[in-house]
Amino acid sequence: MRQRLIAVFLVCTVLGLIPVASARSDGPPVYLVTLSGAVTPATADFMADAIDQAGEAGAGCLVILLDTPGGLVESTRQMVMAIYDSRVPVVVYVAPSGARAASAGVMITMAADVAAMAPGTHIGAAHPVNAGGKDIGETMAEKVTNDTVAFIKSIAERRGRNVKWAEEAVRESVSVTESEALDKKIIDLVARDLDDLLAQINGRELSGRTPIAVDPDQRVWIAESLRVRILKALSDPNIAYILMMIGLAGLYFELSHPGVVLPGVIGSIALVLAFYAFQTLPVNVAGVLLIVLALIFFILEMKIASYGLLSVAGIVSLLIGSVMLFDRTDGQMGVSWQVIIPTLALVGGFFVAVAALVFRAHTRQPMTGGLGLIGKIAVVKTPLSPSGRVQIHGELWFARCPDPVAAGARVRVIAMDGLTLEVEPINEESH
């Protein structure tokens, strides 16, 4: 009898008539997003959109895989506020191995409901610096530092993390590894990989929220939109540099050839995009001034006969300004030499060529009209005594000569008075 029951059970199981407990969880999906590179307005908008999308979809949580050297303070504040306002738990995971949460990344990580790090990562060095990556200076240093300390301490207190270390990260730029961060209660856990992370956070209790409940097998990756990719591309120093060069070249061509319109329009748009990028990059004011000075040199080359000296000064100024345009204090920002050399060659050559053409047009003798006849040879058709007619370029002109000249002789045009040519006889023997 027992054997029959077992056989019936197996048959029903195979046919699906008896449900079998599944190892798969029935929890909501987990949403994931990757944030790498500098923190910029585009990054802040992207993360805010991701948080909203996860909340509207009813996700179990949003996992942010973070790797950043830092970024703008205002964008960091926007990201922290977005995490606070999130309808779903936000988990910041500093990964993969070798990644870092530096400067602004410290505040974003500590603001998360769950802060985690992968082995071989580090966090810290949150001292405020200027856009060039250097210390702010004595005038504003204390004010800015105190404001940043208050900001990060409020984050640590809200999430129950190490307030003392958070202050040290700002004032003394201290950094720690993932194991030290766990021991100092800066983060909540260390996870080998994403699978390990989801296993550790599933069912985790949170202060002021329901426990995290997710189905680890349901993972929804949020990709960057076209708008975000464009804005991030504009924040690349190489792209910003090329846009600035295109903008200056366009405006320069418009100034040298007024009324062409198209180069001026393209140049204006390129400069606006470049200036947008500059607000997210460590721009060196001296570099910008040198590039503008180079443009002034090229414009003066069109007005002054410097025999190329102003063009040489412009190219040198353009080269130095390009090198100095972005500070490289953090080892990442700056324009690549593979971009500087060809861009400088093309734009500098363009400036020199346009200046040379304009200068030549201003200095060469007119080829058309009355002024174009000066110095030309004419044939006397009616005797000049002192007035008569001459033929030049197949046209008959009234002419006047102080000395009598017979018909058929050749004369040289030396001036023009209204529609009458002033001529002088040519010594045929010497000619």
Automatic annotation (TrEMBL):
Keyword Transmembrane: yes
Span of domain NfeD-like C-terminal: 372-425
Residue ranges of domain NfeD1b N-terminal in the record: 30-192
Gene Ontology CC entries for this record: membrane
Annotated keywords: Hydrolase, Membrane, Protease, Transmembrane, Transmembrane helix
NfeD integral membrane domain span: 238-355
Membrane topology: Multi-pass membrane protein
Domain of life, source organism: Bacteria
Pfam families referenced in this protein's UniProt entry, alphabetically: NfeD (PF01957), NfeD1b_N (PF25145), NfeD_membrane (PF24961)
Subcellular location per the Swiss-Prot or TrEMBL entry: Membrane
Main location (coarse class): membrane
A GO MF term: peptidase activity
Membrane spanning residue stretches: 239-255, 283-300, 307-326, 338-359
One GO BP annotation of this record: proteolysis
InterPro entries found in the cross-reference section: ClpP/crotonase-like_dom_sf (IPR029045), Membrane_assoc_protease (IPR052165), NA-bd_OB-fold (IPR012340), NfeD-like_C (IPR002810), NfeD1b_N (IPR056738), NfeD_membrane (IPR056739)
The protein, known as: Serine protease
